[in-house]
């Protein structure tokens, strides 16, 4: 986010994690920039800080980037300038690098009369050591993003040819990375890390190929879903068609299970499973693990809504929308007077008093990260006259930092770190609290051999990929 005036504050929920970006790419379409715009529009939930599109034309790569939402960054005059048959786009929430325009993506470089652009979702856990190595060899960095490291390594290998340069570069990277790359010749490239942390799929729009973080973006532009990229796969799309290159991969996978719990849009299919159906399954499992007597089940919109539907179906407790969300709240607003208590919470959600007063309720949440907003909302419900407030969470407690592309990178940020569930219940002012067990989460996600296919390090501290020592010192010990 760009620097704002001191009498303004950014509006967001403190309890919700932010994901590191959404990707879109298209090859062989005369309106590639416009198609990319709509693809990014569908992926807006994956990042709201900045947006950008890069287009390849005969003279190189043109791009436009800006801070804010996709609809704020682009208008018709930009599409008149962004002409070309191939494009990539990016929406960003920063987990590495500051929220400034210079760190917005796609990131474009020029090297020996050619241009390359990259857009990245994830986090390179060996970025610190790679950057030191490159700077020692004379590289000059223009941003603080780990994504820039990819291009520095890539151009060092480009003399081997495009395919080998990509393979050799990917070998050096560790961590979570799905990428789309654009060349000035118009090739569009999709890359997925060997563990498969972040989703990336392939589609077809008439005679064009499309890459996107989620299938909901394919749906919006009316592209046909072909398949998801495999872990460790590099897809090169050019004038000679599509070529798939498989790099070396480990035996296990590390799909981010939090994509199912929170990040992905419910109408998307990721890792072979529909997100809507999976979240309802989490809610059903939660009802079996922690039954409770209550008058109604409700979410805090929009988090927990689909798990709440599953909980209601399994438990037989009626589902109600006890809180109504204002969908027209902007990203920033002028801070109100001191007398308007908790304005930042109430401006977004307002209770339906007639439904809630005097009732015993079950609130379904998908996660509790820092806890501040939950505590405030529970207090407000008590003041409204709610008799009992139970909470059920459709994922295990977040006790460990994530270094693979989620914005809680220190233990100190996590309310569940170092606290028991009874302690959390009292701290949040609840009558009862239960988190879905890791076993229940994995089983209800319904993917074969889940222990070998998911990363759940934020729950159990078992990190599938080693990271730079400085991350351990600066983040894990805090």
Give an overview in words.
The chain is an alpha+beta fold and 478 residues long. It has 2 domains: 8-250, 4-Layer Sandwich (Glutamine Phosphoribosylpyrophosphate, subunit 1, domain 1); 274-476, Rossmann fold (3-Layer(aba) Sandwich). The protein is built from 17 helices and 25 strands. The protein has a 7-stranded antiparallel β-sheet with strand order 4-3-5-2-11-10-12. A 6-stranded antiparallel β-sheet has the order 6-7-8-9-13-14, with helices on one face. A hairpin with a 2-residue loop joins strand 3 (50-57) and strand 4. Helix 5 (147-157) crosses helix 6 and helix 9 (275-289) packs antiparallel against helix 15. The model is unreliable at 1-14, 331-335 and 472-478 (pLDDT under 50).
Taking the sheet with the most strands, its summary is: 7 strands, antiparallel
Strand order of the largest sheet: 4-3-5-2-11-10-12
Number of domains: 2
Counting DSSP E segments of at least 2 residues, the number of strands comes to 25
- Which CATH class of the largest domain? Alpha Beta
What is the overall shape? globular
CATH architecture of the largest domain: 4-Layer Sandwich
Low-confidence stretches: 1-14, 331-335, 472-478
CATH topology of the largest domain: Glutamine Phosphoribosylpyrophosphate, subunit 1, domain 1
Question: Summarize this, please?
Answer:
With 478 residues, the chain is an alpha+beta fold. The protein is 29% helix and 26% strand. 49% of the residues are buried.
């Amino acid at each position: 986010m760009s620097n704002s005036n001191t009498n303004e504050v950014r509006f967001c929920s403190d309890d919700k994690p932010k994901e590191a970006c959404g990707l879109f790419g298209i090859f062989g379409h005369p309106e590639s920039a416009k198609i990319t715009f709509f693809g990014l529009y569908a992926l807006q939930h994956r990042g709201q800080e900045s947006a950008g599109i890069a287009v390849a034309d005969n003279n190189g790569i043109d791009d436009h980037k800006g801070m804010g939402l996709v609809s704020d960054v682009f208008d018709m005059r930009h599409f008149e300038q962004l002409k070309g048959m191939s494009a990539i786009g990016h929406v960003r929430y920063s987990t590495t690098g500051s929220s400034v325009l210079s760190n917005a993506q796609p990131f474009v470089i020029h090297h020996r009369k050619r241009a390359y652009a990259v857009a990245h979702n994830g986090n390179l856990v060996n970025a610190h050591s790679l950057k030191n190595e490159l700077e020692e060899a004379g590289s000059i960095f223009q941003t603080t993003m780990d994504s820039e490291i990819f291009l520095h390594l890539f151009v060092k290998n480009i003399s081997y040819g495009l395919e080998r340069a990509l393979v050799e570069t990917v070998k050096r990277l560790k961590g979570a990375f799905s990428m789309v790359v654009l060349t000035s010749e118009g090739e569009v490239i999709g890359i997925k890390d060997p563990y498969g942390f972040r989703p990336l799929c392939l589609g077809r729009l008439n005679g064009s190929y499309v890459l996107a973080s989620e299938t909901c973006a394919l749906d919006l532009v009316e592209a046909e879903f072909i398949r998801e990229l495999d872990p460790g796969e590099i897809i090169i799309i050019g004038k000679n068609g599509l070529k798939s290159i498989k790099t070396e991969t480990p035996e296990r996978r590390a799909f981010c299970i939090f994509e199912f719990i929170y990040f992905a849009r419910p109408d998307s299919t990721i890792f072979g499973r529909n997100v809507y159906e999976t979240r309802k399954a989490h809610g059903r499992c939660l009802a079996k693990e922690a039954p409770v007597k209550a008058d109604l089940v409700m979410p805090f919109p929009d988090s927990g809504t689909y798990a709440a539907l599953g909980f209601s179906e399994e438990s037989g407790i009626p589902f109600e929308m006890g809180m109504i969300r204002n969908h027209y709240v902007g990203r920033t607003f002028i801070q109100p007077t001191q007398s308007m208590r908790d304005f930042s919470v109430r401006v977004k959600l307002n209770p339906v008093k007639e439904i809630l007063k005097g009732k015993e309720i079950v609130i379904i949440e998908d996660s509790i990260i820092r806890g501040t907003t939950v505590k405030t909302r529970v207090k407000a419900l008590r003041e409204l006259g709610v008799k009992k407030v139970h909470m059920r969470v459709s994922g295990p407690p977040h006790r460990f930092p994530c270094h693979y592309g989620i914005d809680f990178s220190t233990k100190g940020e996590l309310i569940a770190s170092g606290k028991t569930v009874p302690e959390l219940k009292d701290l949040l002012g609840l009558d009862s609290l239960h988190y879905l067990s890791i076993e229940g989460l994995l089983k209800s996600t319904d993917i074969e051999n889940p222990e070998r296919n998911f990363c759940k390090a934020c729950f159990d501290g078992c990190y599938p990929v080693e990271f730079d020592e400085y991350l351990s010192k600066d983040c894990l010990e805090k």
